[in-house]
Amino acid sequence: MSHPSLSRRHFIKTSALAASALGFPFIARSQSPNSEIRVGVIGFNGRGQSHIGDLLKINGVKITGLCDVDEAVLGKAKDSLAKKGQTITTFTDARKMLDSKEIDAISTATPNHWHSLIGIWACQAGKDAYVEKPVSHNVREGRVLAEAARKYGRIVQCGTQSRSSIGLQQAVKWGQEGNLGKLVWARGTCYKRRPSIGKVTAPTPFPAGIDQDLWFGPAPVKPLMRKKLHYDWHWVWDTGNGDLGNQGIHQMDIARWFLGESALSPKIWSVGGRLGYIDDGETPNTMFAVHEYEKAPLIFEVRGLPSKSATGGEKESMDTYRGNAGVGVYIQYEGGHIEVPSYTGCGAFDKDGKLVKRFGNFRGPKDAPDTAKADATDGQDSHHHNWSKAIRSRKPAELNAEILQGHLSSALCHTANISHVLGKKQEPGAILEKVKANKEAADSFERMKEHLAKNGVDIAKDHLTLGEFLTMDPKTEKFVGNAAADKLLTREYRKPYVVPDVA
Length: 503
Fold this sequence. Notes:
Blueprint: H1 8-22, E1 37-42, H2 48-56, E2 61-67, H3 71-82, E3 89-91, H4 94-99, E4 105-108, H5 112-124, E5 128-131, H6 139-151, E6 156-158, H7 166-176, E7 183-191, H8 212-216, H9 242-246, H10 248-259, E8 267-273, E9 286-292, E10 297-303, E11 327-333, E12 336-340, E13 345-350, E14 355-360, H11 383-393, H12 403-421, E15 424-426, H13 428-435, H14 439-454, E16 464-466, E17 470-473, E18 478-479, H15 483-487
Helix pairs in contact: 5-6, 6-12, 10-12
């Protein structure tokens, strides 16, 4: 979706007012096509390292600032860039980076609970932004981020890099042209081993050298009731969204892309639980969610078991779908299907399972015919490069993953999680009775039961949660007749880290 046009006078006025309200000095800096784009990177203990690596490869882009609340992480990254001849200003507080006149844009990969607020603050400070997936921790703040990008005339990219895959772009177009007939359903899989994070009986001391107030930011400050602060925040509701919002957001986005849906699903429900071990994690490690779009359903499956045993060996094999035991997307049509096993390639198959077309770097089965030629062999444009080009053109429509797309796909993860949180544990027979009318959901349930049984989980004793069956108004992004679900569309923010209204 392209951005509404804003006159320069209106843009400067509204941006200056908003920035002033937050304490940001508004910086009006013209961006000529040949000028250098000065980028600050926020949060790089994990995915942010890739941001730094990608940005260093782009001509006309210079990293001028680094921000992280962990002093050790910050110092290490500064030293690494210094060895490359880069002069870097460091920050522990993102607000101070956004004050800087040496920063034109920010690229952020903090924990999920910070994504939207940093993106919104960047827009209000007159900065363009690249926001890692999921772009939000809840539905409302993702919508506010999309609104902020439009109101303040900012170029905001979501970190779903598969959108920059030339092969996938061509495959989506080819499928939507009807080459395999009518689309019947889409299924995403996130089969990724996630071992137990352990169980503590007393709070873990907060790590030295990390600003605790800034780390928690919008989330409530609580004792650290897990062994490790970093990464395992994904499995706690206050800061993460489980693997559905961690790895799964990529495949959720691809599935929605093929479906051609530009709004949230009107009906959502789920089945799942955290099973196979007892630890300090809260999010499901086994789950399937159903988004009932009018044209075709989107089904998503998460598998976290098996974990590795104490001897280093593995338990039973991971669940498989059509022979794939990893992450992927499967688009079923009346005349065949498209399999997407990676971010950069996919294959189209006819009704008989014969590979008829390759896209990108898809290799497919060993016996696939050579006649199934690829439409694209160059795989993927750099997602950050695409962002930098749009910054120069000032055309949000040129972004491969404009922030509204990021909001919608992230919100599908959130609404599925809301179904789970509001659900109740049920006997297997009661769950089957609820799901059996939906052939594909019933298939997901049967394979889930087999997967859990192989990992020593008896769901007759350790019950799965049957999520609440939710109805949503996609136009308002509110649930219909469910105040408890609506409450989970947002959160109570800790001052001063409050997501504002910008519309």
